[in-house]
Amino acid sequence: MPVHLIQTGVIHLGSVVLSVGVGVVLARFLGPGEFGLYAFALAIVTLSVVLVEFGLPTVMLREAAARREDPAMIRAIASRLAVVVLVNGAVAVGLLIGSWLIARVAMRDAVPLAPYGPVLGIGLALLPVLALVKLGSGTLRGTGAMLTGQTTEFVVRNLLLSLAALATFAIWPDARTAPSAMAIHVCAALATLAITGAALARVLPRPPKAARPDPVKAPAIRPRLRSGFFFLLGSSALIVNTQLDVVMVGSLLGAEDVGLYRVAAQAAILTSFGLQIVQVALAPRFSRAWREGDLAAMKRLWLQGAAFGGGLALIALAAFASSGRVLLATVFGDAYSGSFTVLLILCVGYAANAACGPVGVMLSMANRERLVAACIWATLLGNVALNFTLIPLFGLQGAAIATAVAVAGLQGAMAIVAYRTLNG
């Protein structure tokens, strides 16, 4: 296997481990209530960042890859797109504040939203920062600095956040609040942006002032925005699917329920660990087999991926089923042992997802991106309907059932499409 694929796999898996590590640190120090406030606000921010970045990191990756011999043009395009991201961030902040004020009035008799205000207000600072980090990461990867670009996007922020939170909360117990945790996150994101900027300066150095050519005029920005919009359509539904359950629990139940649910969700995602390895490893082999018209090889790779990912998922499911309550209490704290049922439901969904194998990657490599996008959007609509229906009836278990059905249903739908693609 090529070295860069191994590096990519290690970085993505390291990102998952660090993400869980951040959850462990914050959950233990904050407790379910404060951690729930933080998790809800972060879910809102994560959803909003997708709109702020507007698919432009992917556009920048493509532009930089096509212009590797022209660093001045890469810098010019990146600067123009960075301005767009900043404008989008300002608009998103205004829209979120307005929506928040309307929601407080509309839902004052249902769920008290006032406690979320301070932590969400601080989290708004993350919108342009995280979008700029992703834009810089896309630029780095496009210029060929794959390892640096992936590390800045997937590893650095969570590493800094976990270390800063651990040190701060251990030294100052009074700082163990959701707003403090979000402020630490903002600082970690700003540090990550600075590191990304330094990496860009190294990869795209400016010539000495005396040797600088005439200023480069960047190409028209409108076509890039149009491309970004289509990338946005493809990625936004997937991001919404991953954050919808947390937002719905926070909106319909409360902060402490969000904390309990978020811990279970973070632990359950480990069930798909094997599938993530398979997706990274098999993507180029799927692409090569499709170009060569070797459908038998694609079927064989699919079955191998399903066996590996599904096998590890079943092992994880068995471990959580037998020792999940103890693991939750030991790793996250005694207050979270009540999340066991939610954890088990989510693990079943992720295990079913993994058992279907890397169908999304396989379809993408077979030029079936539109079918993948259609499956994702259909699943998103079903996920929204299920959450609205099941959370009021069954609480956290209802959210877990909705998410498990959506996760398994998405992969199942893509498996059907993949089967038809490979069998004519």
Compact summary:
The protein contains 15 helices and no strands. The chain has helices at residues 3-53, 56-66, 71-106, 117-123, 126-142, 146-171, 178-203, 222-252, 255-268, 273-291, 295-331, 340-355, 359-365, 369-394, 396-422. Helix 9 packs parallel to helix 12 (340-355).
Give your account of this protein's structure:
The chain has 424 residues and is mainly alpha-helical. It has helices at residues 3-53, 56-66, 71-106, 117-123, 126-142, 146-171, 178-203, 222-252, 255-268, 273-291, 295-331, 340-355, 359-365, 369-394, 396-422. Helix 1 (3-53) runs antiparallel to helix 9, helix 1 (3-53) packs across helix 10 (273-291) and helix 12 (340-355) packs parallel to helix 15. The mean pLDDT is 86.
**Could you give the count of β-strands?**
0
Give the averaged pLDDT, no decimals: 86
* Low-pLDDT segments: none
Residues in β-strands, percent: under 5%
- Overall shape: it is globular
Give the N-terminus to C-terminus distance in angstroms.
30 Å
Number of domains: 2
Cα Rg: 22 Å
Number of helices: 15
Q: How would a textbook summarize the main sheet?
A: none
Q: Strand-and-helix sequence, N→C?
A: HHHHHHHHHHHHHHH
Query: Helices and strands: which structural class?
Result: mainly alpha
Q: Which bin fits the share of residues in helices? A: over 70%
